[in-house]
Amino acid sequence: MASLANVLLSRRVQEMVINGEEPGSLYICRHEKQAQSAPSPLAPIPIIDLNLLSTKTEEEEEEELHKLKSALCSWGCFQAINHGIPSCFLDQLRHVTREFFQLPMEEKNMYCKGVEEVEGYGGDPSPEEGQFLDWQDRLLLTVYPQDLRDTKFWPHNPISFREDLESYTCKMRMVTGIVSKSMAKSLQLEENCFLDRFGERAAMQARFNYYPCCQRPDIVLGLKPHADGTGYTIILQDEVEGLQILQNQQWFTVPTLPNALLIRMGDQMEQIMTNGIFKSPVHRVVTNTEKARTSIAVFYTPEKHKEIGPVDGVVHEERPAIFKKVKDYEITHWEYYQRGMRALHIAHV
């Protein structure tokens, strides 16, 4: 399978769609007899007003902190509004994302990655045998720390792409500061405890996703089911639904809110640092026959080689440690992800 997968991954899904090609066998994720035509219900993802967490009265802040904790204990994610990023800038970012993927194939391929490489334009590295391929193309870029950037993958076209991404990176650092402190306060912990665990050089990667139309959405997924190996992930969606979260063995579709940022916990933040109090949701992306979908995900991960474990205050006599300290968990997570498995068990006590 690996050699055939490599051949497919050396091409772009968008190119196959333009050529009118049907999804090959390696893209089929479930048997036709198991296909479900019934739509998934919309997920009642809680909406959190970040402005109430930082500038309003103590009573308003306490109420919003309670909502935040409830959201992360139940869904493992929330829709953030009033986050300080102008809606016109979010629209601009969506626009340059669509513009990039609408460029001629030969121009996009100037930023192409190798089949087994992670950063750059293309598909994810080939998974292990027995795992299906995702119906998507993406551009993955390290944006912070700046000295870890590989700018040969940063597009010069659209003209404003680099400037917009630089600005968005600064805004994401502001948002992670507010969110990390608020999550700590929601658990009645010292407000900087999570920021300290992430470290001054906490990594950020921006992933620009393009999910082309697919003639077989019943058996082909845009992104396979998994939980993130990050601290947490910040997602800017477009108007096309497709992201789904697994809750009580049922898939729920995440609503699209024009000016909201979906903030979804990863294994390191929710499970390891909070000793299992928060949830790390399994999610996937479904395809559709009529509309292509784009999204921008920013992965926020503790700095390299930093030891991560439950923070002070979440381990006590009534709740002993469930997780031990680990380093570079995201590397192990990726190895298990390529096998279609979760890695969280390696951090269990």
UniProtKB/TrEMBL annotation:
Q: Which SUPFAM superfamilies match?
A: Clavaminate synthase-like
Supply the alphabetized keyword list: Iron, Metal-binding, Oxidoreductase
* Domain Fe2OG dioxygenase per the UniProt entry, residue ranges: 202-302
Q: Does the keyword Glycoprotein apply?
A: no
Q: Which family does it belong to?
A: Belongs to the iron/ascorbate-dependent oxidoreductase family.
By what name is this protein known? Fe2OG dioxygenase domain-containing protein
